[in-house]
Amino acid sequence: MSGPAPAGVPVERLDRLRVARPRPALDLPAAERAVAALLRALGRDPASAHLAETPRRVADAYAELLTGRQFDLTTFPNDDGYDGLVLARQVPVHSLCEHHLLPFTGVAHIGYLPGERILGLSKLARVLELFARDLQVQERLTQQVADWLQENLAPRGVGVVVEASHLCMSLRGVRAEGSRTITSALHGALREDPRTRAEFFALTGTAA
Ligand SMILES: [Zn+2]
User: Fold this and answer.
1) Which of 45, 48, 63, 157 would give a disulfide with 113, using CB separation of 3.0 to 4.6 Å?
2) Distance 123 CA to ligand 1 centre (A)
3) Chain centroid to CA 87
4) Total domain count for the chain?
5) Catalytic residue among 99, 116, 151, 192
6) Which listed residue (136, 138, 143, 144) is catalytic?
7) pLDDT less than 50: residues of the chain
8) Contact 72/20 with Cβ under 8 angstroms?
9) What's the domain range around 54?
10) Final residue of a domain: which of 16, 44, 65?
11) Known active-site residue 136
12) Distance between CA 173 and CA 99 in Å, rounded?
């Protein structure tokens, strides 16, 4: 269920939107067999006592990490005509890099300039999670969240910044430990109006 409506908003003025993405066709037994095959290919014995349950655990973990949870998004009329920036800062983000199947984690800052409707702040995190539970690249994740909000909320502007560390960078290859990748996607006034854009980046703490 969504959160309660602000006091005085009649129920018929709430818009409820079922938010979901197509579920991937998961074949868990096939995934387990593939993990066992990977272990063998890596010179390990998947039948050993320590690894016996590993294929099932890995298959379950990937199934969870790749399946977004659907939810109901309730929007409210912006009766007070609030026209300032609404910003959720430091929203945790966890996703899987599609190049290495390794996690990337960090925070997102998601802001919008309300148009005729507003939504509960916790829902911004749910939208982010819906797209993060996928094989992703950080750039696409950032853009998908911004596009979704622009299309479904019709705000006057949207800004999304994601700051993340990629295990594929910190553990292997260049071993760029501690380095963070920053991506942003902007729509509407946050894209077109330099002052609004500067305010957004200053509030997110990612201004140049
Ligand atoms: Zn990677």
Assistant:
1) 157
2) 28
3) 15
4) 2
5) 99
6) 138
7) 1-6
8) no
9) 28-65
10) 65
11) no
12) 13
